[in-house]
Design goal:
single chain, alpha+beta, 8-stranded antiparallel β-sheet, 4 helices, cilium, cell projection, flagellum
């Protein structure tokens, strides 16, 4: 055996002084070195106020907020649920001042599962959502109790409906004044809640309940215009844009000038100077020249 090989074997078998000491210590304290639970005890403390304006009331451990507690943000949003290491962790819910509730499951501060519940109790479904979308425009109370007969319809989701001050619009969270262009509290018309954007102001005026109530009537834009047929077709009629139609032998008389009028089935179609087929007229009694 060479000297170099013998030296390698000798160094491989050599044990350091520290390793030997640790081995002897472990054998001497075998019972004491058994694994123990690492669960950190949690204690209940008084309300903790933070420099940011938030506050917490619940259980703590040496690492921070842990267990179950209530955390209130400066904007009055409240989280109530489980914590771990100072983070939302487990089941809990966020409660907003307007009444909405976001119920969900958190993992180290990240929301991994959620359910949104509106202030009137309606539960949002992001997969099959039809509430307040055409053709379903019912309130939650109508979903729950059904539609009411004429004259007794629900005007608002809250019952009884609150009275709207003269000249204001009911936005749900307050009353909108078109003169000052701000929304006031329903309990105090001198307390401003917020200032809506220009786009929202237009939407409020077009859709929200107001005082006085605007007159209701037929929607002319939803009507088809049915007229009697014309007797003569203009000489400059063309059918290049609608080849499936034949020039009408009896054309409606509207007292207006049209570029083209064609007959298709029992209907007349008009082509304006802008080039769009934008009207349909029913042929009651076509007259043949």
């Amino acid at each position: 055996m060479s000297i170099l090989k013998a030296r390698d074997i000798s160094s491989a078998k050599r044990v350091s002084q520290w390793e030997e000491l640790m081995r002897k210590f472990s054998e001497a304290h075998k019972e004491q070195c058994k694994t123990v639970s690492l669960d950190i005890p949690r204690v209940q403390r008084s309300v903790k106020q933070f420099p940011t304006g938030s506050q917490y009331e619940g259980t703590w451990d040496v690492l921070g907020m842990s267990g179950y507690g209530v955390y209130k943000f400066p904007n009055d949003v409240i989280y109530e649920g489980e914590f771990d290491d100072g983070l939302f962790h487990g089941e809990g819910e966020l409660k907003y001042p307007s009444g909405e509730i976001l119920r969900g499951k958190w993992k180290k501060g990240a929301l991994i599962d959620k359910t949104l519940i509106f202030a009137d109790g309606l539960e949002y479904d992001d997969i099959d959502w039809s509430y307040c979308r055409m053709p379903d425009r019912r309130f939650t109370i109508e979903h729950n109790n059904g539609l009411q007969p004429a004259g007794q319809s629900y005007m608002t989701p809250e019952q009884p409906s609150r009275e709207v001050p003269q000249g204001y619009y009911d936005t749900g969270d307050g009353f909108y004044d078109p003169k000052t262009k701000v929304i006031y509290s329903v309990h105090d018309l001198t307390a401003i809640i917020r200032s809506p954007s220009v786009r929202e102001q237009r939407w409020i005026i077009d859709n929200c309940r107001s005082n006085p109530i605007p007159k209701l009537g037929p929607r002319k834009d939803l009507y088809e215009e049915w007229v009697e047929p014309m007797l003569h077709l203009p000489n400059n009629s063309r059918q290049d844009s609608m080849p499936f139609m034949a020039p009408s032998k009896s054309t409606p008389s509207f007292g207006q000038d049209y570029d083209s009028v064609y007959e298709f089935g029992s209907c007349y179609w008009r082509k304006t100077s802008e080039g769009a087929w934008n009207k349909r007229f029913i042929n009651f009694e076509p007259t043949v020249d």
